# Entry
Amino acid sequence: MIDWQFAERTAATWLSEHGEPLHPAVLTLEEIILRFGREKRNGKRVVFTNGCFDLLHPGHIESLETARAMGDVLIVGINSDASVRTLKGPGRPVIPAEERAEILASLESVDAVLIFEELTPQRVIAALLPDALVKGGDWPGNQIVGREEVEAAGGKVVRVDVVPGYSTSEILRKIRETKKEER
# Structure
């Protein structure tokens, strides 16, 4: 017997706001656990990182490539539109979550992307228990969400250098300044 409610929910998960299917690497937490949970890894090292990734820039690319080099699989968690708005303020995100996920999933360094609704990826990290949790060096070590769970499970938490000169907030500030100058 087919569970049609499940089929409808799954199909809705895979569509962008334009009605197009998302990249096959955009997954739910349940799908990520089924593919990359501890018992499914077969010796592969799973790395997790997260962020808003609102306007993808070279700093993001470098940090993702650095994170990917730390393991065999890179999973990227991105904040939902509502959580980005709460964290970053009105006018954010510029790009909807489904489109941000699609862009990230298309990168060679990224194996899977999931969108989480909460303000932090605490629940995702606790469920996945990656071998490595990677955050930008601008995050104080004691404020990295998921640190305790990852380390208690034998994983490591790594802070990577932030690439100077790249910031979504700074890009948006420059755009606003240019608009003001044109008026």
In short: The chain has one domain: 24-182. Residues 168-182 form the longest helix (15 residues). The two ends are 63 Å apart (CA to CA).
